[in-house]
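lol so apparently i was supposed to do this last week
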Amino acid sequence: MSVDWQQRFGQVCDHVRETALLKSANDVLAWDEQTHLPAAAAEYRAEQMALLCRLVHTRRTNPQLGQWLDELAGSPLAADPHSDTGATIRQLRRQYQRDAKLPLPLVEELTRTAVHAQQVWVEARKTDNYAVFLPWLRKTFDLKREQAEALGYQEHLYDPLLDEFEPEARTVQVGHVLAALRDELVPLVEAVRESGRRPDGSILTRAFPIDRQERLGRRAAECFGFDFRRGRLDVTPHPFCTRLGPHDTRLTTRYHLRLFPSALCGIMHEAGHGLYEQGLPPEHFGLPLGEAVSTGIHESQSLLWEDIVGRSRAFWEYFYPLAQQEFPEALGDVALEDFYFALNEVRPSLIRVEADDTTYNLHILVRWELEQALLLGELTVEDLPAAWNERYRKYLGIQPPHDADGVLQDIHWSAGLVGYFATYALGHLYAAQFFAQARHALGDVDALLRRGDCRPLLDWLRTNIHAHGQRYTADELVRRVTGQPLSHRPLIQRLRAKLALLYGID
Ligand code: ZN
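anyway here it is w/ zinc ion bound
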């Protein structure tokens, strides 16, 4: 009996599309939970979402799907791994094998532990009590070790955990680039400190009425090219971006009256994620060709708009008069120079989420190094706070007075997200590499930004990155687009150029 490959491929796609429908229904519930849900409704919502998650998992691990994908992998449709069918089969098979390798009891134990560990973490952070969190952290890393073993690896125990967020990335290779980045950043931050220059940061903590912040934030997102006919902006305590369907991308933010960049840069960041989501081919929604490459590539799109465009001198030459119009009391008497310096201040701080784009990756390096040491058993959870503080002293020249502002500050480990932190650093690296290439292709990007014309840059990103979905891995994509492998150099060059002007260093 001969198989009609096209028909089989169609069956697989139908199955996956239906799973995506179910998954997107869950995403609507999750978005609503984060934005509008009354507190008393949380328990029933958790049940709704748990059921949908179970159904999605069952469909994704359906042995029939695995069998079809195995057959298709040997068919002519898979011969070219970058063709529509080849890329789809390759990615779906990869996802299937990953899901199927994890025994259900382990998956459930990971979920249960994450729920408990997060509750304990919230309390531990509030009361600055690492000791109560310690047993949960130990358990989390024990389970992650078990998960890594179950998924299997060739080079490094950390590989399968990194792979969850950055498919096909290798710990050793990423580690070389991040170490090179660290060795350039530490002296750069030191030079900034020694320059003795400081902007007037109080400019950004004047009163900025929230309704005007929202209006200006929308204006920035629109200027970048975010399509509000296919998206929304809402308020949430923990900002994120999510796509609920092929034409429905939701941005969220939070506003502080006296912290101007928080919401505006937050909106620029989420709009960057949103532009990527809106640029993925809608006809492939839920299928690999309609999905983001990796968490790191996703982050590169948010950071390109937030840090590279949204904090650039050129963009603010266009945007600053609009900001002054919205906030005449706060900014009317502030020169663009002073505002721009305040917005780009480099200052080593204890808290990752408040860090500037120069010191940020040193926060990531601390976590990247420590979570591997914990996973490999080279570091015990008992010794973690001391190791954390020592690295902060070495890399950033400061030391947390409390664990609450140190090792307890991030939600990730309590949520079982081991392998995630690296994607933030990868996002910075890819963003700088892509932007350097866009500059090369488009010529004077600054001249465009000075007019508020972001269209050519967005079109370039659409064509070179968004339109491909998962056709290429992150590594293939960055080589294809820039002609170079992952590198720390474009990021360092960009930061050096910026800081030379602001701080008078070279
Ligand atoms: Zn992000």
